TrEMBL record:
Keywords: DNA-binding, Phosphoprotein, Transcription, Transcription regulation. Residues 143-214 form the HTH luxR-type domain. Pfam families: GerE, Response_reg. Transmembrane segments: none annotated. This is Transcriptional regulator, LuxR family.
């Protein structure tokens, strides 16, 4: 796997690069601002871009805006955003642009190496990895959520799907059987009217519905 890292903190940038190297993941470019990120993704066409939200010059939302632009310039570019806080406005824009190959993690998650690496691989493969806190805040902003018909347990399952967990991982988290999770997932798809599609994965479409973005 080939990645581009955009992070203004030298220590974190180098730390993430070394962490990835230990997992056999190659960093083809490590940059410190949005413009350099755009140049790097256009040049290298990486398997994943890991982007800090707050970068120079104003240290507000340059990184997230650059990530959105990077996906516009390089369609289907997987992007994993790292942030100290949830930047609600642009998080919505990033996710609404297509949840396939998108991750949004709070930086504290990087400390859990196995969780972070799993998120990197998942997003690079076209999946999602959305921090629970991000999900919570986006749910609060929703005026009307299309998952009202789901049971409490089905909502719990869908919330874990939004974090990128597999059925087996969901079963372990909820302490239920794999068969029970498969049944819940089937019910979720049925209630949301998500028929099989060749162009869009139903789990991704369910995540969008959960966040009221689809």
């Amino acid at each position: 796997m080939r990645v581009v890292i955009a992070e203004d903190s030298v220590l974190l940038r180098v730390g993430v690069e070394r962490l990835l190297a230990d997992e056999g993941i190659d960093t083809v470019a490590a940059v410190e601002d949005g413009e350099a990120l755009l140049a790097a993704v256009e040049e290298h066409r990486p398997d994943l871009a890991i982007v800090d939200v707050r970068m120079p010059p104003s240290f507000t939302d340059e990184g997230l805006r650059a990530a959105i632009e990077a996906r516009r310039r390089v369609p289907n570019l997987p992007v994993l955003v790292l942030s100290q806080y949830v930047e609600e406005r642009y998080a919505v824009e990033l996710l609404a642009g297509g949840a396939s190959g998108v991750g949004y993690l709070l930086k504290e998650r990087v400390a859990d190496v196995s969780e972070f690496v799993a998120a990197v691989r998942r997003v690079a493969e076209g999946g999602t990895s959305i921090d629970h806190e991000v999900i919570t805040q986006l749910m609060v902003r929703s005026k009307r959520n299309p998952v009202d018909s789901l049971t409490q347990r089905e909502r719990e399952v869908l919330g874990l799907m939004a974090q990128g967990l597999s059925n087996a991982a969901i079963a372990k988290s909820l302490v239920v059987s794999d068969g029970a999770v498969e049944k819940h997932v089937g019910n979720i798809f049925a209630k949301l009217g998500l028929e099989p599609s060749n162009s869009e994965h139903r789990r991704v479409r369910a995540v969008l519905a959960f966040l009221n973005l689809g």
